[in-house]
Fold this sequence. Notes:
By secondary structure, the chain is of the alpha/beta class.
Amino acid sequence: xxxxxxxVRDPSRVQGGDLTDLPEGxxxxxxxxxxxxxxxxxxxxxxxxxxxxxxxDSLTPPPYRAQTPYLEAFARRxxxxxxxxxxxxxxxxxxxxxxxLLTDRRVxxxxxxxxxxLEYFAYADFLSADPGVQDTPEMRFQRTREAMMAYExxxxxxxxxxxxxxxxxxxxxxxxxxxxxxxATLIVDEEYIAFQGNGRSLAGTDLSNLVVLQSTGKANGMPxxxxxxxxxxxxHLRGDVQxxxxxxxxLLDITAATAALQDNAWLPGTLAKIKSDAQRxxxxxxxxxxxxxxxxxxxxxxxxxDNPYPAHRHLLNYRINTRLFSGDEAxxxxxxxxxxxxxxEEFDQVQAALETLTAGxxxxxxxxxxxxxxxxxxxxxx
Length: 382
Ligand SMILES: Cc1ncc(COP(=O)(O)O)c(C=O)c1O
């Protein structure tokens, strides 16, 4: 069995939601995640229960047909059809396949970006804001526009992880239209598009130099399930990706994901609540960090901090986990990403931590590995 003391990593290397380095029970509010904290939807649970208790035989053969209802439900959600879609095991499977296929092509990633994307596309050019300049959606869009004039493939998440920046749909469509003649393709990871609002996806347009990736994990609060889709009119690329995918989907995952997509009642209600919670979090953070908070419309917010370790450790002492980015790795910026709390108690917990976070804490040159602070039980309030 692995011993906890061997697991202590620099927090910048720990993905959101991974509490394995921290003592059991040390965290009561995990804001490091980036999925819907109210999930999974009841319909998804019911579908799984039904499958296991009433149709156990369906577990016997490989689920060859499972992708059809999934893609049909996804297409209905996106007001398109299934002709240009593939089903896969989350956006991750598509990112990995695309990164493998495009190794010899000129690829740019608009950074900062999801760490998985940075790893898969490590061979690409990372296009970031100028050093010391706090990025904005407009600057991100400008880099995307320039990249589409200079590269064959341009990868970005929209809304972005970790900054939460959203580039308006029509701006990206215009860029794709303008660069069609030179054969540049935009790969848009829409992992968080549902949090931004309805009707924002680029899937279903008539452009052939566009690849759109989405999953059913984050918005439905079940990132433990592996299910997602790729949309593109580029027949060759779609075929090439398909050949790299696993031969079939995971039945339990796709069953829950299809039921979530068919449930039109649950998602809008939870997303509305999350968005207003996130707005409240933004105000709370701005009260403490001012303009260093990146304004956004989705479910998390990013705070730019030159040295995020002391603030991260301070919040850990209040039993709150956040996602730390050191800014040391290519394509990242230093700071903390926080998902929105959802109850009064959780907001009080965050407020108490922020009120006691001193400027000294923020600027001190603490040891960059902060987990050691939490060996044993927390010593601070809460
Ligand atoms: C922008 C972005 N894309 C893709 C992924 C991976 O998503 P999936 O769970 O759909 O494989 C993540 C996970 O955090 C992400 O933040």
